[in-house]
Design goal:
PLP-binding_barrel; 11 helices; Amino acid deaminase; lyase; globular; 433 residues; D-ser_dehydrat-like_sf; alpha/beta; lyase activity; TIM Barrel; 8-stranded parallel sheet
Length: 433
């Protein structure tokens, strides 16, 4: 059972002009004090990214129920949000722990008391390994990382021995694929690494790991076949490693970005039924806010699909029209510094005369391009204008966003509204990038 994170200090932080979009009256106030003052989104400056509390709660429930129904544990990838308050909500929904991508992120998480961490990466440098050795003195701390080569194992062993680690570090063998990301390229290489870890005095073999999302970027037959074959390799290697595992701790088989976790459940199903000791673990992270772009198009649980489990987009950007230089073109005051663009440009959804006013659908519009601080809003409707909406200059546009991982890293605080379209701010989510 994971402990509650140490979040009180977040509520005690003072807001200031350093916090993009925060209303001026909040300057000098503690976060808890500001939230107690009944804040409204209409007070915030544009551009801004908002989160939808109702949709987040839906997504937490959906993913927890879906994972449990397939016999899967969930250790969601915390690098998606780097927001301890959201990690706590994921833990409260039943997650086994939180996955992170770097030892720097692990250190941040440990300052909040997170006691169950998977590092979906290798830890090889002297500084981070010495730090890890100090953390392992906490008997409540669950930690597992990955290795994909003998060189990685040797780098870990050298420092951990010098640091006199109080207990061995749990390590999963990471498998990869040609032209993919990290990971042992062949089963023979993976087995060699596993044997080396199992023989170590400062490491402990803890399973098989991998990231199938690096092999595909769509749901074509070719992509799905590649992902299935990769996942089957994980199951096969786990069986091969059987005699190398000890009885002293957890064993994992872990996969699952936010795009193909349905295939993970399919590939692991028979093994899950036959092996109750192993923690068959998903690391999907983007589900907590989903999106209107990449994940909406590729996730097996998008709200546009069928079935009882549906994820909803819980984030949107809001920007203001600051220029209407010619018919068919308006410029918004938010750009690459504010909104993600690496997995598709923002999608215009709604327009209003100002924040706090009634939203109306925005038809025949698209984002054509983005600069650092501007987005080019193309208008193809009647006369290339906003139609019935009053006054183009100064109006606000709600944008669907694509890719949570490159949304959160642009914001120190993100206001959380009660539900989509609501003006009531119920929380401020603090990030640590």
């Amino acid at each position: 059972m994971t402990r509650a994170l140490l979040l009180d200090e977040l509520g005690n932080e003072r807001l200031s002009a350093r916090d993009k979009g925060v209303p001026e009256r909040a300057f000098g106030m503690a976060v808890t004090e500001f939230l107690a003052s009944d804040p409204r989104l209409s007070e915030f400056w544009t551009p801004i990214v908002t989160l939808d509390d109702e949709a987040i709660e839906n997504n937490l429930t959906v993913m927890a129920q879906w994972s449990a129904s397939h016999g899967l544990e969930l250790m969601p990838h915390g690098k998606t949000t780097m927001a301890p308050a959201l990690w706590q909500r994921q833990l409260d929904a039943g997650s086994l722990g939180i996955t992170l991508a770097t030892m720097g992120q692990v250190r941040t998480a440990r300052t909040f008391g997170l006691d169950s961490i998977m590092l979906a990466n290798a830890a090889v440098d002297d500084r981070s390994l010495r730090y890890l050795a100090t953390q392992l003195a906490d008997p409540e701390f669950r930690f597992v990382c990955w290795a994909d080569s003998i060189a990685t194992v040797e780098a870990m062993e050298s420092t951990l021995r010098e640091a006199r680690t109080p207990r061995p570090v749990d390590v999963c063998v990471e498998i990869g694929a040609a032209d993919g990301r990290t990971g042992a390229r062949t089963n023979a290489e993976a087995l060699e690494v596993a044997r080396r870890i199992a023989a170590s005095d400062v490491l402990r073999l803890a399973g098989v790991a991998g990231y199938e999302g690096s092999l595909a970027h769509d749901r074509s037959d070719e992509s799905l076949d590649a992902v299935r074959a990769y996942l089957q390799r994980q199951v096969e290697l786990h069986d091969v490693f059987h005699d190398l595992y000890d009885d002293d701790g957890d064993v994992y088989v872990t996969a699952g970005g936010s795009a193909y976790f349905d295939l993970v459940a399919e590939a692991f199903a028979s093994a899950i039924a036959a092996d109750s000791r192993t923690l068959w673990t998903l690391r999907s992270g983007a589900y907590v806010v989903h999106d209107d772009g990449f994940y909406r198009g590729i996730s097996p649980l998008d709200e546009g699909g069928a079935g009882p489990y549906r994820l909803r987009s819980a984030m949107r950007g809001i920007a203001r029209v600051v220029s209407h230089p010619e018919p068919g073109l308006a410029l918004l005051d938010g750009g690459k510094r504010d909104f993600p663009f690496d997995e598709g440009l923002p999608i215009p959804r709604q327009v209003a005369s100002d924040l706090g006013q009634e939203w109306a659908p925005l038809q025949d519009a698209s984002i054509l391009a983005m600069n650092d601080q501007h987005s080019y809003l193309g208008l193809t409707g009647e006369n290339g204008a906003f139609g019935a909406q009053p006054g183009a200059i100064g109006t606000v546009v709600a944008l669907g966003l694509s890719h949570p991982c490159t949304t959160f890293d642009k914001w120190r605080y993100l206001p959380v509204v009660a539900s989509q379209g609501s003006d009531r701010v119920v929380d401020l989510v603090r990030t640590f990038f």
